[in-house]
């Protein structure tokens, strides 16, 4: 017991002696374990938060959506549900009236005109029992609001447009409504309209109100068109769904059944968790591996300094097992400190992640408790590594004869490592120029381990920053192409496919605020090649003066049988410019109906947008498509002196217009989302930078201690401190260059993997290209080379204050 | 060449440990002086102060006309480069450099890298055939010869040796002493610190220290012996 106490106290002295390095190594472990735990925790948080939010608002199990334009009298759908054979399995039912609308939520400074939907339910109890409305502060609607022009506005829409918590909006028909609060509801946790890649939280408005108000606004007096139900835990949901569907069908209306897992918001919310987590897992693992390598190297070197003490212990007959206790105890205590730091770093990264997630996804419940079970396993590895690192030099030391371990002077002179290999190779300059390289080669294992530890971190950094660059690059390319030579271009969606000479369409071109229009027919199509892809084909006059897709290859002269694809689409299909591609396109068979026809199109060009499903054809193709002279979209350019808000306002009043958006609206939204995502990456990159600096500093500090006598000898010969520092800098510079080159190579491989494997799997509709910005290159070079090279400067003070007589007399 | 006047050195606060007390010493160029004393007598402290590795608490030290007790840090570095050269008990030669490169280091440090041919100096210390050997490929005696050659390469007029034979066997030790004697014969002031009384027999002068005081200073009591007469 006494022995243990002595060893423990001794180990504390060791820790105190090397306290700066101990803290730095513990921080390395802490950042590695904490970053891993923090980054990988988000999946659990999001799953838990999603579930809890759904639970809180009692999301439906089955939804029954009546066919377009169908409705029944209020009470009929609930009665149908109540009348089924297994009615006892139904917990709650809520009848709704849901109708599309246009929403004008413009404020003094900003025009906000978007499509949206009115959702009306019975609010006698303050809100729906299924798919409830969650108001963060204040109250929602009360029974007194029934039939009044009072609504709740969807929280995400309000948030993304910086709208106040209460105000007024105008919906189709010019009706002004007072929104008394903002609310969240499960179907709007994520809003993704068809044919877009991005969330549409800011460009699609949910307006929640009483059933009576909704009926008034839509002119559907006493009607409902939607039923949502929850079923008992032990119920057979499919049976309930089938029975209710049959019961509704008997009412003489068509009905579409949607189960909870197929709800777009629910599905994307959970899919998104997995996709995002794949990215974070990769980076978390790499940071962890880098930190583990760094900690291993540093602790090994720290323990190697005790070689002679181990020899002395062996000489006086202490058993190797007992000898190992102290260095292992030191390793354990460093590890323990590292684990404590890991919790702090994990919590910090977690809170950063949470703050970003909170903005990205508005959920009523966020469960972001520290993931102890996840952290535990990381901490176990973080704890074991210093043990192994400490054990290795101990194992080496106890294998030599005690006399060799304690021997001093020339007999203990270590081998020259690889230095003899270059003794014939002299660099220009004096011996001061040779020494740094000789020192590196003299201890190749140490130099390589140091370089690899830093290289691992550099690789993470290159991979990390490169991923950010690639995402941002893709966004920029997309935005650049969408803007073209008409950056203010507006996309006007028509209410269906209309002849271009329809008064409602010509009115767009004639609007005062519009100068120049291009009719466009947007078609969904399917291309077949190496893969099957869904395409959103825009058929327009590619010779128009307003906007053309920017091409990376090929030409705009596509004729009536050519198509312009995204580069990533061409890659996935296995085609190139000049090849033909099998496409199943809709051919117009009636005024508003299409049938699908298989045809071979010539790949005339590849456009620069990273969005895979965007494809373009010339309006010459409208004839074979049977769609000559029709359009469902119009591009409109604001006239001089008018802005996008003016165009939105003027066109909003046209019956034929479904929505008016800036062409860049989607990419602006995506930009905002990416900014948040990039924010997370940058926060983590900061920790990676810190990791690299800590490792460089520690490495320099340990090197300084290993070379103390050499430095003292130099100073005894009058060599100035700055010259000794210069040599240390050159030595570190060499390590930094080698580490950066290796790290750069590793980072490029990682980036390739993220872009071409992970991203290709998790976000196939975005064509990422490996990109490294000058800022990234600069950061990597500055950090990997300059920071590592300059790390010895931290030892300048200790060099200046070195006790020369004492150091020179210290035996090996 | 070396002149110490009333030099004292105390270590620690409170009740200080007196390493040297009121030491007066003068060594001329060409003199081979052995500073003798038991462990803790202050001999290494004396050497360190003459070599400007440490500074006295009191008194003045003038070496080659330069008062190092009043010199700035920068001047002390300059002094070490241009005036003194060290030989250590544990050699302290650079393991990453070959024998020739270690010698070249001495010349480079003194700013006379272009004037020195390491091969000539190593030949002079009997290592003409070991130029490209690394320290771990040399015996202890050879390593100490490299250290002496490095000191010689500086061309500095004062050579300070701290227990230069401490880690060597007798035969090798004698060879090293012969080399040091030769440096004195060439005009350098050579100050050798040792606890080995036998070595003092070949000195021009023996300065004996005890508890920080010089207790004797003069030629060897039994007259100067030749190297052949040494034994330990």
Q: Characteristics of this structure?
A:
heterodimer; A: 812 residues; alpha+beta; elongated; B: 232 residues; alpha/beta; 4-stranded antiparallel beta sheet
- Mean pLDDT across all residues of chain A, rounded? 84
Q: Provide the spatial order of strands within the biggest beta sheet of chain B.
A: 6-7-8-3-9-10
What would the principal axes of the Cα set say about the shape of chain A? elongated
Question: Which percent range describes the beta-strand content of chain A?
Answer: 15-25%
Largest sheet of chain B: 6 strands, mixed
Low-confidence stretches of chain A: 409-413
Question: Which pair of chains forms the biggest interface, and how many residues does each contribute?
Answer: A-B, 37 and 47 residues
What is the rounded distance between the termini of chain A?
Answer: 32 Å
Strand content of chain B: 25-35%
Q: Would you tell me the overall average pLDDT of chain B? A: 89
Describe the structure.
The complex is a heterodimer of chains A (about 800) and B (about 230). Chain A has about 800 residues and is α+β, with helices and mostly antiparallel strands. Chain A folds into 4 domains: about 1-60 and about 275-405, no CATH class; about 60-260, no CATH class; about 410-480 and about 665-810, no CATH class; about 490-665, no CATH class. In chain A, strands 12, 13, 14, 15, 16, 17, 18, 19, 20 and 21 form a 10-stranded mixed sheet that branches. Chain A has a 6-stranded mixed β-barrel with strand order 3-4-8-5-7-6. Chain A has a two-stranded antiparallel sheet with strand order 2-9. Chain A is elongated and about 100 Å long. Chain A starts with a helix and ends with a helix. By secondary structure, chain B is α/β, with parallel strands linked by helices. Chain B has a single domain (about 1-230), classed as 3-Layer(aba) Sandwich (Rossmann fold). Chain B has helices at about 45-50, 75-80, 100-110, 120-125, 140-155, 170-185, 195-200, and strands spanning about 1-10, 15-25, 30-35, 60-65, 65, 85, 160, 190-195, 205-210, 215-220. In chain B, a hairpin with a 2-residue loop joins β4 and β5. Chain B is globular, with a radius of gyration of 17 Å. The interface of A and B includes residues 441 and 712 of A.
